[in-house]
Potassium voltage-gated channel subfamily B member 1-like (Lingula anatina), 452 residues
Amino acid sequence: MSGHGKHLDHQNPRLLEEEEKAAVTINVSGKKFTTFWTTLAKRPESRLGKLAEDRGYVQDRGEKLFFDRDPAYFGPILNFYRTDILHFPHFLCVPIIRLELQFWEIGEENLAPCCKEIVQTFYKEQKEKKLLEKEFSQFSPVIYNHKEGTCDSYRHRLWVFLNIPSSSRGAKAWMVMYIALLWISFSLLAMNSTPEFRSSNGVNASALPHIFNEKLIMLLTTDDNPIIKVCDIVLNVFFTLEIVVQLFTAPSLCKTLKQFLSVIEVSWLVITWTTDIAFTAKDYLVEKTIEEQREIPAFTTMRVLAYLNVTLRVLRLLRLIPFSRNLQVIILTLKASSKDIGLLVTLLLMGAMIFGPLIFYAEVNGSVSNIDNVLVGCWWALVTMTTVGYGDKYPSAFGGYVIGVVCVVSGMVITGIPISIISNNFNKYQSFAESLKENKRANENEERVSLT
């Protein structure tokens, strides 16, 4: 107890009662609030409660209680002393509420349940927002320090030009051209697999009676179209130079090589030129195949190289991810929904293992059944549960129809639950991406206004 408190002990009860009922006026940024000292003393651990204990010191000095705080937030705090209920209007800013509580030395645990839920929800959303910002930031290019006029400065400028389309109009034009060339490269690949765009090499299909694969026969009896081949080589040279420049100008070569897209780029570079070199021996291998009347084992290696080349060429389209918010949203959605996708695959496999044997045995007595074995039945079950329905396999007996109905309904239930969760994740990332776009547009408008 303060010195004034000891002085009160020697007063008579009437004076003591009057002193306890004494009113105090608190001026908060010009707005005055009046209450009793005894009301403030209910919370001795708070700032106002401590002043109530030392009110004699304040009164003796003739000082008024003035606080340079927002009066809109002080009303609910003063009501807390009166009613023991700490409730703020829901339109007030949550971070300011926390700052005011810290200033007045009142713990957040005293908040009313409705306010506490709003505060917890707000900070949960803020935490989630920071996590989303961190996830989206992984697609942002890394800026490294450099000194102007040095070699690093020119490397940095070139790297910015190649990787940040928004840095200049030239960089944007470069990226548009690069994306167009990627699509052209893919189009050349598609055209090269079509017989109409290939040229005959003089080999007759009758000279390959031991080969029954029509695609392989087409590739062995035709050559790449000369124009398509030249265009493909030119594009390969262009992309090779671009990858080399990317690696040369990278802020950190080791970190760059560890990135998924860089692994794809370098792998494509090695496989592409290895495939082109290997296919120079195609004519010799075709002659050897005709001479020995069997498929040369080297063709297997060439097919593997061609398959890898095609796969990596398609995967290079992932290079578009850092420049497309929509692609980033899809990638992050799949990443966040990995457990749900795993659950979906597990449920589908379980359904296939259940309905595959059932449809096979239900169709045993069918006269025109095309469910030849349990594996075919599992294939039919997967196609049916996903509601794809290729129509290549189907039940023909009454028992099969019943199993088919149950399988379809089960598939709708099985796929519906995880897909709804995946959809929620997509909506979350999509809405955040839209907010980033709006913030960027707002910042650009502010910069434009400040320059004018």
Q: What stands out?
A: The radius of gyration is 37 Å. Residues 1-10 have pLDDT under 50 and may be disordered.
